[in-house]
Amino acid sequence: MKDLIISHVKDVDGVTPVILMNLWNKNYDCKLLDVHEMFDYLTELLTTDLSIYEHIYVVDLTIPQEIYPLIEQSEYRSKFLVFDHHETHEYARVYPYVTLNIEECGTTLFYQYIQSQEFITHSGLEEYIKAVKDLDLWTFEKNNNLLSPKLGSLFELLGEKRYIQEMTLLLQKATKTFTFTDFQEQLLELEEENKKRYIDKREERMIRGILPNSVRVGMVYAEKYRSEIGNELLKRHLDLDVIIIVNMNGGISLRSRSVDVSKIAYHYGGGGHVLAAGIGISEEVKREVFQRLLKGEINIEN
Predict the structure, then answer these.
(1) Where are the chain's structural domains?
(2) Which CATH architecture has domain 206-294?
(3) Is the dihedral of CA 114, 116, 120, 122 positive or negative?
(4) In the predicted model, is pLDDT for residue 301 greater than 50?
């Protein structure tokens, strides 16, 4: 039998469990999703024949509260194993197949599980896993983990599919220490220069505003570097409490120094952590914007 792994498409923490499945030499199907896609996907999944799967792993994704009764009623309930670290998923603690720990990341929770299943690890993989955790929890500056931001940059450069392929190959070889190839190092050096220019341009066009409770926000439009933009602009603008990064193709990212943005995200169907959260942009919203443009309700200025 094979397994099914469902994980987050948007970041290194989400795709690394797929890399671990490769290193585990598992036969599996994979579905990478954004948070806002979970309800429709799982609703459909639970109406299909899942007997071909031994396990159904859900990693780094919040399962909507309305879906759990469907899982509980399903004949395939025993196949589900959920590993998550988002505070907005707290209601799932009552289910025995859910592992939830906000001090970890999805990757480390899944990694701990497969280690209990006689998965063979090595020091190079341990180094990589620690870097993923520091990147996802944004603790790499405090822990002086220089590998973490490089993983994030490489993910942005390669996209999820190629990142999974290349990291799988590297980790199969890196038994003692984790190292990039010379070509990857060159890519990362160029990417760092591009990133700084990109953030500078987004900063020039930042829009300022005030949310309820006098929360001061800055909003930018950007298709990449969402975490880097959010955290860099918070450093540059100490008067702002929250940075909002809007990507019409990907969603809305929220970054903060003190405000619990996970509550804001959850209110709009998203989720995340206290200082870093996200909201999906539905196809309906995109169509509404387009229709308003056609009707002349949105003014476009050069």
Answers:
(1) 2-180, 206-294
(2) Roll (3.10)
(3) positive
(4) no
Do 64 and 40 form a contact (C-beta atoms < 8 A)? no
Structure-block tokens of residue 128: 């990589």
Q: Which helix (H) or strand (E) holds 84?
A: strand 80-84
Domain 2-180 has CATH 3.40.1000: no
Structure tokens at 47: 């109406």
Contact status, residue 106 vs residue 17, Cβ threshold 8 Å? yes
Token pair 């476009």 in the structure block, residue: 300
For the chain, what is the largest distance between any 2 Cα atoms, rounded to a whole number of angstroms?
Answer: 61
| Residue 250: pLDDT over 80 | no
Supply the pTM of this predicted model.
Answer: 0.80
The yes-or-no verdict on residue 116 having pLDDT over 70 is yes
Instruction: Tell me the CA distances in angstroms from 228 to 188, 198, 231, 276, 278, one per residue in order.
Output: 15, 10, 5, 11, 14
CA dist 129 → 23, 111, 171 (Å)? 13, 8, 11
